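Researcher: Predict the fold of Enoyl reductase (ER) domain-containing protein.
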Amino acid sequence: EETFRPLHRSSIESANLLAEQPTPSPLVSSAIKSKEQVNKRLKHNAKMGNAEDSPDKSMSADAVMNEKWVLSKRPNGLFQADTDVELVQESIPFSTVEKDEIIVETSMLSVDAFIRTMLDENAYHGSIPLGGTLGAIGYGRVVHAGPGSGVKPGRWVTGFMGAQTFAKVKAAQTTGVIRFPFMSQSASLGLMGLTTGLTAYTGVFHVCQKPKRGETVVVTAAAGAVGSVAAQLAKSTGARVVGIAGGQQKQAFLLNDLGLDGAVDYKSNDSTLEQQLEQTCPDGIDFIYDNVGGETLDSLLYRINPKARVVICGAVSQYSGNLNHGKVHGPSNYLKLAERGAEMKGFNVMQYMHMLPFTLFGMFWLYMRGKVAMKEQIENGIQSFPIAMQKMFGGGHIGKLLVNVQHKKE
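Model: C-alpha cells for Enoyl reductase (ER) domain-containing protein follow.
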C-alpha cells in the first residue's frame, strides 16, 4: 500500500520552490485542519485499503451492475444535461475481464473543462463516440483484478475512470492513490490532482520564467479550480496578482478568500473589461496565466509589458465549438508579443511529467506553509455528474467541482 514519504528540505531547496508571503489568505487558514481532525483523517486513510466493506447490492459473486453516463447526441453549442447525455445500466461480468484489466468501484470523480472538448467531433483530447461513456478522471477501490494485472482487490487506484459507478480499465493505465497527510482524500483530484493543482503549478513555475516579486500577474477564470490555485501560487512568489472572474460572489472570493490584489468582473455592467484592466493593472502586465482565450486574452495582450510571459493553459470560452461555428478565435493583438519582446507558450501537464516529483514536493510544501488551499464543491451521486458539468460551463461554481459517486443522492 502506498504511503507518502516525508519531504526532505534539501529536495525543496534544490528545486528553488520556496517563496515568501506575509500571512496566509483566509481560504488557506480555514483549510489548515486541527490536530484532532488530521489524526481522524489519517486513521480513515489507513483504513481505506484494508477495511471489509458491507454487502453492496450493485455487486454479486460474478458481476457488478454499472451505471454510466453516455453521449446521446453532440451538443449544439452549450452542453445541455437533460438532452445531450443519458444514464444507462449495464452488467459487467467478471468473466469478461482480461488478464491485464481490473474493475474499479468509483468513489470520486473530477469534473474538468477538457471533458467538454471530447463531446465534439475531431476533438483535441479525442472524441467520445455517440453512445460512449463520458470521460472523467477519478479514484476508487479495485473489486476484481485479472490474473496478470499485478493488482490485488482492495487497492485504491486513480486514473481515467469515466463517468460511471464501476470502471473496467487496464491496470497499467492506473496508479495507486497517494495518501497526502493533513489533506482530505479528495485532494488527490484537486490540489494534488494532475488536471487541477499540478496543472496550475506547472504553468506558474515550469512553462516560462516564473513570476518575480513586484511583477503584475493576471489569472483568467481565477475563481475556477486551476485558476484559483494558479493565483495563489503566483501570490506566493511576491508578485502582485489580479484575477478575472464573473459576478460579485466570485469577486468577493478573489479578494477576501484568496487575498488577491485586484479583481476584474468581466460580467460587470458598470465598466468594460478594458476599463477595469486600466484600473487594476496601471503599470501593465508581466505574466498572464490564461484559461479562457478569446476576447479576454486579446484585451490582456494589449497591456503586456516588455519581456512579458503568457502561459496558455486552456481556452474555456472556445470549448463550445458550435457556438463559434466550429472555429477557435485566436487573438488579434498577437503582434504585441513581437512589439514587446514577449513570450507566449502553451502547455499540457503531460508534457512535464519529468517534473512531477518536484511539482508534488513543491505543492505539498507550499500547502504546509499556508500558501495555497483548494475550495471544493462536491455534488453527490452519479446522477449529478452532468449537472456538475453544466455548472462548470455556466460559471455556477467556485473552486474545484467533484462528484462523490458513492454518496447516494436523496
